[in-house]
Amino acid sequence: METSLHKDLQALLKGMNSRSGSLKGTLRWNLEKKMETDPSCSISLITVLVKELEKKLKRIHERPASMHIIPMLHTLYYAALQSGFMIPTSLYKRAYKCLMNLLTLPLPHSAVALSTLRSIKMEMTTPGSLYQRRVIAEQNLRNKHFTLQEKVFVLADPAVFSAPLEATVRAYLEVSSSFRDTPTIEKNLIIHVLQKGLGTACQSSRLAQALEALGDQMVEKHFDRVVLAMEQSIKHGAAGSAAYMNRLQHIHRDILTAVKDESTEEYYGSVCSRAMPFPEIKFHLWENEDDLWNLLAHFTLRSHSSVDEEEREKRDSFQSEDSGIETYLKQSDFDDTERPLVRKCGSAFSRRNAFKSTKSADRLSLMKEKIDASPGSAPVLKEDRRCHTARVVVMGDDRVLGRLTRAYYSMRERESKCRVLTKKLNLQLYYIPVMDVEPLLSSPDSSCQDEGRLSLASLLGRVDPWYNSNINSLRTEISKLAHTNQNEPSEQNLLPLDTLCYYLRCGTHPVNLPLYSVKMTHSSCDVKSVVEEVFVSHLEADIPEFRHLKEKKRCNIRSRFSIGDERELPLNKYLDKVLSLPINTFTGVTL
């Protein structure tokens, strides 16, 4: 098996240099499907990856060796995430030692190695934690012990998506929500965690049959126990590993003893799916720039209603404790009905509904986000209280990134005055290039034209070869969906959906594209009009007085802008870098 996987890995790495876009993404997808078909091969794949990483580390100064390290790190992470079998501790320690040596490499290799190292370390002390946390967040399973929830929004450019393509892609992406069954997902998670934590001691077939016989309330109770045991183990680190195993053994025993029938006729695979469930995806045509703000605001307000309730209860219970505060509050006439709202800032205590300026905290949070955007930066604050994540995927050509630029800049301006979203929401941005030319009808000339409108996708592909292999290859695969007769994903056309899920799970390292602001003043008949625009790569200006010219005036940060009277001024002098647009990739750099 190791020999076969080694050949597959070598073909995958060599395929990164191939000109065939479809071949690049298919090689990684085939390897992923092989792990789903035979979960036991994940141990052999991790062994092969660690051996290859050790070889590449010795030849790190060679360009092919350094280019292949990041793809192998992501493959290692995904193998540990998907594996449903207990991975030997000796293999984990070998992988841990190899990753520690990779930390000496320069950015971005060390940043990706550090992220993989943290995941491997957590999986080593708490087996099954990567898989369970990821599924709970993606499926929005409400649990008091792990409150992280995620939502995926796909925003498509109407200029690229025709009506037939829009209808097909919408049905293709949103069909995963119709198969979402919370009790079944909880059963699968219980079996996956117990099997990965207990190994051969887990009686998978009996456990699956017992869970099937239990009611939904009992399944939820045992699932809550598994999540609690896992979160306590993660909190205590290596010191809590032994207690975690003991809790898993007790949960395993309690589930089996709850059902008297000990027959094992039912097969384990019919209950526990080996493939990770698809996240809930919402598809939208991006008609207006305010659509992004409205979607995020609606998600934030709806998701945090229950969380805010719990926080208020905790705060009320804290203030009612007999620690001397309650007596002081009574003696100090802290009565909400008799005192005005605004108090002196220097008072030791303030009422709950008193005015409190949070501008300093807002600035600190925005500054933290800007620092964290730098690759390899350490977290500034000890704890991130944002327990909800919005993953926004934009599809289209350069124009949709221009729209995202303006929407993101407008949102940051709002947040700098009054924090509404960034206080409670973690925003992650993704970009998938899509062509509006049907692949069956495209010609060499149209191909060159499309490459010009996908300049930013080409740029991301150059700085991140793994992005180029997996995401840039989707530009034709998504367009092909309009020619398929099936609206639902099947085994034959699962490649785009699986690749999107892989991008969402592993593309956590942003490439920070600089945003530029330019202000143009136009005077006509003693009337001045000022236009201020924000753009990421280029800006086209249609000036009425010069429409008779053959060529539309084009503002490009690498060229000069003609003002019509044969004088040319360097455009760079009139540009201000105002912000960075973080687009998630697999490498993460700052341009």
From TrEMBL:
One of its GO terms (cellular component) is phosphatidylinositol 3-kinase complex, class IB. This is Phosphoinositide 3-kinase regulatory subunit 6-like isoform X1. One of its GO terms (molecular function) is 1-phosphatidylinositol-3-kinase regulator activity. PANTHER family: PHOSPHATIDYLINOSITOL 3-KINASE REGULATORY SUBUNIT, PHOSPHOINOSITIDE 3-KINASE REGULATORY SUBUNIT 6. GO terms for biological process: G protein-coupled receptor signaling pathway. It comes from the Eukaryota.
